[in-house]
Amino acid sequence: MRLPVELRHVAPRLATGAFILNSGLSKRGADEQTAAMLHGMAKNAYPFLDRMQPQTFARLLSAGETALGAALLLPVVPTAVAGIGLTAFSAGLVGLYLRTPGMREEGSLRPTQEGTALAKDTWMLGIGIGFVVDGITRRSR
Fold first, then answer.
1. Membrane-spanning residues where (predicted)?
2. What's the average model confidence in pLDDT over 1-7?
């Protein structure tokens, strides 16, 4: 049986999968203060999230990160499928970086000291897009 993962995809899938899985697991059972902080930052960038309760947001974020991390780590999940999830998730994080005041230097995409933690998530967006593009071009050959 041939797995739907190319050897060249193993390292970025392991790196992103382990990182995201750890993040999701660390948010499991988040206390009220942590949930409020996560929710507050997210709703400032994405106002539609204001309707959601902080604890619900934290639980859904934890579950989503855990599922995405597992999908990236499990070789039975096709790389293009895992890449779509990674692209969507990391695009949301990059949007958070771009929409949150104080994360970027004035008139620039360059991060401030505070913004570096969010700006670094652009590497995941690049990996996700690469997985999707690779999946599309591989099928067209």
1. 80-98
2. 76
Amino acid at 60: L
* Beta pairing partners, 104: 111
The overall longest dimension of the chain from CA atoms, in Å, is 53
| Contact between 114 and 39 (Cβ < 8 Å) | no
Alpha carbons 8 and 95: distance in angstroms, whole number:
28
Written as six digits, the tokens of 136 are 């599309």
- State which amino acid sits at residue 123: W
Residue 19's closest CA among 100, 99, 127? 127
Give the helix ranges, DSSP H, for 1-141. Answer: 7-26, 32-45, 54-73, 79-99, 116-119, 122-140
Distance between CA atoms of 34 and 32, rounded to whole angstroms? Answer: 6
Look at residue 1 and tell me whether its pLDDT is greater than 70.
no
What is the spatial distance between Cα 61 and Cα 24, in angstroms, rounded to a whole number? 7
